[in-house]
Amino acid sequence: MIQIQQTIVNNDFLAHSSLSKKQEKIFEALLKSQKTYVYKNKHQLLFEIILRDRIIDAAILLAKSKARFTIFRFSRCNEQIWTKNDLGGFQLKQGILPSDAINDIFINSQLYAFECATAIVIVFYKAVLDVIDKQKFNTLFSNLLLYDWHVDEDLGIKTKKGEDYLPGDCLYFKNPDFDPQTPQWQGENTIYLGNGLHYGHGIGIKTKEEIIDTLNRKRKRNATKSAYLLPQTTRVNFIYLSQFANSLENYRLPINHQYFITGALGSATFLHW
């Protein structure tokens, strides 16, 4: 359910807004939620819909890129842009714009390798960059460090319990009987893309069942506990970030970015434009 100030929003509320079909599906998911999402104004609601849409886009772009999955010890980055620290994180070099650094991960993806939590953070930063003013992005995130869940406080990432899964959320699959020889498979952070599909760095775009099956193959010998989806969601602070966006009333994605996730068959995922 959606509430703006004291008014409950219905299906017709965004009838005159220029939303793509994918954005309309996100709006419908918010409407149908058992949880009440409260906004001060229409701008905040539109911003969340559009940012969730761009989170999905960024996840798909990363899935299609040449960036690889690896543990922190073997992480790689473009050394002209970042300095790799002793922990395997990427620290932005002086004189490099944060916006250029985030975009470089997608432009020169073959130079990068990282684990799944860092991948989620990269997706969030990329999505925010695509929605807010570039100068504001560079001011907010001037000292970028990409390492696990260490993020700038202005991104406002919070994890809350509950099964209110919405497109654009980060969800976590836990693998309690993981093989101690490969601790990187103790779980998988994913972006929920909608229509039952998730993107997990190192696994790709899969259904919930396929991700669980993949993690179960990474368990210790004689394991008895299956991997499972945790009842929690991890999100950026949509309302806080909305103040840095321009007018969204007539916002619509360019045609070449309007791909729709329609489903999966076996290991094949179908993305239609």
UniProtKB/TrEMBL annotation:
Name of this protein: Protein-glutamine gamma-glutamyltransferase
Stored HAMAP family: Tgl (MF_00727)
UniProt keyword list: Sporulation, Transferase
UniProt keyword Transferase, yes or no: yes
Organism: Parageobacillus thermoglucosidasius (Geobacillus thermoglucosidasius)
Taxonomic superkingdom: Bacteria
Coiled-coil regions listed in the entry: none
Swiss-Prot/TrEMBL GO biological process terms: sporulation resulting in formation of a cellular spore
Transmembrane segment boundaries: none
